[in-house]
Amino acid sequence: MSTTALPAQIARVPGVAIALIALCIVFVLTSPGFATSPNIANVLTQSTILLLLALPMTLIIMTEGLDLSIGAVLTFASIILAITAVSTGSLALAFAAALAVGLCFGFLNGALIAVFDIPPFITTLGTLGIAQGLSLVVTDGQSVVGIPRSIETIYSGTAAGIPLPIILAALAYAVTHALLYHTRFGAYVFALGGNREALKVAGISVRGMLIRVYVFGGLMAGFAALLMTARLNSAHPTAGIGMEFDAIAAVAVGGTSFERGNGWLLGTLLGVITVGVLRNGLNLLAIPSSVQVACVGGLVIAALFIDGLRGEQ
Amino acid sequence: MSILTSETLSSRFTLSGNVMQTLYRVLAVALLCVALTALSDVFLTANNILNVLRQTALLFLMASGLTLVILTAGLDLSIGANVALSGCLAASVIKITGSPLLGIATGVGCGFIIGLANGVLVTALRIPSFIATYGMMWVLTGITYYYMAGETIHGFPPGFRQLGSGHLFGIPVPVYFMVLFLMIGVLFAQRTTWGQQIYAIGANPIAARLSGVPVERRLVLVYAVSGAMAGLASLIILARINSAQGDIGEELTLPAIAAVLVGGTSLFGGSGTVAGTLIGALLLTLVLNGMNLLQINSSWQPLATGIIILLAVWIDIRTRRIGE
Amino acid sequence: MKYLVVGLTAALAALSSSAALAEGESIAVFTKNLTNPYFQAVRVGTETAAKKLGVNVIQYVPTKPDSIPEQLSQVEDVIVKKPNAIVFIPVDYKALVPAVEKINAAKIPVTNITDRSAAGDFVAFVGADDYSIGLAVGKRLLDAMGGKGNVIILEGVKGSLTSTNRVRGFNDALKEYPNVKLLASQPGNFQRLNALQVVENLMQSFPQIDGVLAANDPMAVGAIEALEAANRKALVVGINGSKEAVDLIKSGKLLASGDFNGFIQGCIGTEIAVRNLRKQSTPKEVMLKPIVVDKTNYAPYEVPVEQRTCPTLEQVLAN
User: Fold this and answer.
1) How far is Cα A10 from Cα A13, in angstroms, rounded to an integer?
2) Interface pTM (ipTM) of the complex?
């Protein structure tokens, strides 16, 4: 049942792939440092945290939902992770705490949406405020420091020459891919987007499924918090601000539609990498920051414009 | 009227449903006011009430045009960036020409054009409004940053400043704008064909198109109006703080959306009112005002806002169920 | 697709040509955001010094203002390019320590300005003592108030080192004037509209406010606007020494502003970076003296930053 979605996706190889290839060619031509292995490693590594958020976002958007709180949950989870690490000295415990935070918020989101019928946009806007508020209140605006330095290896370590974050992100991608395309859970996710009646007829609880999807989002946010905290070697209440919109944009640029429950995970991956490549290339070329800002918007619009041209209707 | 009879009937039903929703909200506002009066002895003073009204006015102006967009099941994430660019351009014009009128025309005009661009992206290029306006937000911000180059423009003529910080018969000028656009908004939405068509588009775009509604033109209209209102709001901000900087208005986008949603307009389109948005804006402003008066640590504000949003919508949904 | 690539390449070539000068050392400058005029002054300072010394500076600013992850990414990207030196203002003095460590590991000499990083090896630190400025400006206000009355403090962004130190200065100034009462101390996020609304609200609770200690100029301006709109008078001081502040000092609406000179920090930071590259001696720390700008000495601050000349290191150290 899950494979029926694929042929349609291949015809959409579209917008995001074209954009990515075009950008790579341009940057290779104009910037000598771009195609070097340290730089490529950089771009991929810098994209990992966003990818971890964009993967569950793809599923959520496929269910015609949205998770605006994922950036704030990431931030709050990283703060709890940091505080736990500092007070207990145990990274394992800290990681568990971060996952727990993600789980709680994911469950809260799912419950409000599924049980109380509050539209996802509003629910997650509300929980965004709650998570953000908690982050500010708990830290009083200050960074949390003093984490055992061993945490840094999670972000800067390598295995077989490949940076650890890339390996972890690849793992997350593989898991999500398997979940979406090779399990019943994934099939149900597709159904949640296009065909809820089928679920009800099959006796599957729509509520339960929705909650699970948002819990998945929360857990990934907790996982991403580990990478973020390892990267900063600290936690800061503004660290994850705006990442939810970046994740949503990456998913949309990648071809997943808001409306029909079509999901394309590979597209999300390409979307995340494309944005990373754009920023990296512009930095290497020392393009003024204000122009960079406009370029990001231009990329998003262009990718979807190309998609539209290829004709979906 | 070229609208199908069933459409007319359903919009009437929505109207009475809307009245109930509005009543509940007015009740909420009243309760909040009572609570704040009890908790703080300065709440019910003339100065504070005028303050609240003035702050509400700004939020409402941003959110009023946005209401129309959301009524069509769309979204405009670019309003904050719109305020920044329109405001900065208007500020330049005022400084260069010395004419507040030209500045006002620039501000509203720029906002309108940006809105038109959004409309084109959504209708002609068929980009989902979330993404189109998100991309536009970045583009506008980039242009603004480039144009302002980190500088501020400050010092406007006193005549212009009356727009934001002036008083007329003791009431702040922005409040008059609020009332004016409330009336315009309500009349437009409920009493004109165009307004009804907008509701129809939100409720059922296919049926609307079949019954002869020029969907694309109305969509472009709502985005243009949303943009123009953002332009107007930028002028009020300029007049109040007497300066322009690249990041003005940035922090108003999500609160404006929240005001519309708390006011009872549904994201799925087709139901909600401009009056509701006003009450939503009022509710949010009262909460923040209360927190300030009670000297609650400002770190709690996002938390409180988040909870209010959830509560408001939840109550709405419960009462809608009861109504059915 | 072909046209797309050609078009993009041409556009980028045009945009980047201005930055791709060949002669002289290259210095990467990191600032926090594109909107705060203070950082613009820093950037202008670095560019003015660069022209004088014959080096290139390239500016790196996060596209999302004050974004920690973005500045981290920019540092990583810049390290690949291996500039000769870096002049660095961390978005957050603690969170960017890993970035500084990466710069150190890449053996690129780095000079820290404005916000003192919590850790890392630097060629030097160039800054102004936020505490001393807060203290000096605070004392000026309390003096002008005759040592009695009510004041409010407008703090900056919660958690920012600048805000914390300036407010500490204000509070210590208050200790020297026991007859002055502190009514409230609230954050205004270093922003105009924020501060305006905070003061508006505070005016409801406190009918008599005689003085406002604002941790930066935009907030001071916001306070003045709020007071004027309510027809109330109070003495207001800010910190930055910005053009807007000078205009208000001239018109008598602002009492004074502490000089927190981004332009000079940019100049000196660049000069030190260059001297270090050219194997000349450099001091480990340059702390600019706190100067209170008021009606008596505002003239030099009226000159727009683009037209100012950089003082030399010797001139600054001699002060």
Assistant:
1) 5
2) 0.87
